[in-house]
Amino acid sequence: MAIRRRKKFLPAVFFALLSWSIVAFFLFFVDPEIIRDFPISGSYLPFFIFLFLSVFLTASLLLTHARRGLLVSIGITTFLYLRLLGLGHVLNAILLTSFLLVLEFALRRN
Fold it and tell me: What confidence tens digit (pLDDT) does each residue in 32-54 have?
């Protein structure tokens, strides 16, 4: 089996590390009250955007597929946002995971 050479590996690693460092900056140095109401009231949107980007880049690198990385990042970010709203229960995690798995199988089939 021939090993497929990945192009653009180092820039993706650089941007993944950069986005994780921005998420760490948000966690350790930014007061949550500052970003809570930034564009939409109570959304914490800047944090979730950088978290989504970080998880997407990392999952895309680890899974070697951008679509799977997108589905993983959508799942993790959605579940964490549900936790923020007080709806992050085991049943919601199971439903979200099963929905994303069915979506992945449907997209793989086409």
Answer: 888 888 788 878 889 999 999 99
In this structure, is residue 2 part of a structural domain? Answer: no
Q: How is 16-45 classified by DSSP, letter by letter?
A: HHHHHHHHHHHHHHS-HHHHHTSSSTT--H
Domain hosting 47: range is 9-30+39-109
Please tell me the pTM assigned to this model: 0.85
User: 33-39: long-range contacts at Cβ-Cβ below 8 A with a sequence spacing of 24 or more?
Assistant: none
Q: Rounded to whole angstroms, what are the CA distances from 47 to 12, 34, 38, 59, 88? A: 20, 11, 10, 18, 18
**1-10, 29-38, 91-100: range with lowest mean pLDDT:** 1-10
Q: How many domains does the chain have?
A: 1
